[in-house]
Amino acid sequence: MLETSARLLRLLSLLQAHREWSGADLADRLGVTPRTVRRDVDRLRELGYPVNASPGTGGGYQLGAGAELPPLLLDDDEAVAVAVGLRTAAGQGIEGIGETSVRALTKLEQVLPNRLRRRVGALNAFTVPMLHNTLPSAVDPAVLTELAALCRDAERLRFEYESHDGAPTRRTVEPHRLVCTERRWYLVAWDLDREDWRTFRVDRVTPSPPHGPRFTPREPPAEDLAAYVSKGVSTRAYASQAVVRLLVPLERAAERISPSAGALEADGPDACLLRTGAPNLDVMVIHVVMMGFEFEVLEPVEMTEAIRRARDRLSRALERDGPVRHGDSVPER
User: Looking at the structure, do residues 23 and 97 belong to the same domain, yes or no?
Assistant: First the structure.
């Protein structure tokens, strides 16, 4: 009896870990016959677990959605990973997810064995989150899951979208992937009206069901979608664009420059290229200088003149300041 119960738990764990299993694969994993697998599946059904079975050579077993969420079977590393993920999600900019994550984490910690509770507790006690003081507009988790399902099922999406200047538009797209940064979520999709790939901020998306029909997924606009979105939000979205050679290794530049501030690529062991954008070239100069690295401008040539204007303006400001008077405080260097 004990052996049968342990096998049922193992079977349930396998069904939770994979969308569909063939009877032969389950039998091989459990070390039993396909007939025993069928009996064990019947026992799970008697216990209230909705296990679906499809006949034929391509058929198999799949854990369906039930009226209640079945208990999850996690090994030690999976349990710690879930706890860490919930703790991290509690501080992110997704509307309502913080409180929900805390509730889920509380339930998980109540059933963790002592050895795992100590590991998770130590991680929570000795980790200090460094979050931005001002988070962007929160994303509705229901919208995130709806978009993810449409990407997965290759269904057309209709939605209302608010552009950065506040103008509302209606869009119909073929959703491809969601891309997240430390502060925002983006949807990469093929815009049917504009016949081109577009990147949308999810916090500005309001779905307008019904969705569909299904479509055949297109070849994505880039193999590295994270780099594609980074370039779009940091460069293509601005009126002025520039390519600057930073005289530091790529790894050092990446420590200071986030994907939303510019796209980086290596240019030898001691330099890297930065592709970035700004509303105009004067702002671009400030943007690049504030990064704190030595650099040289590759394009556009007009940016060199903008640097000269900034230099002359700063020189005139220093000349107007005059010498430091007695009693004035001099900032330490």
Answer: no
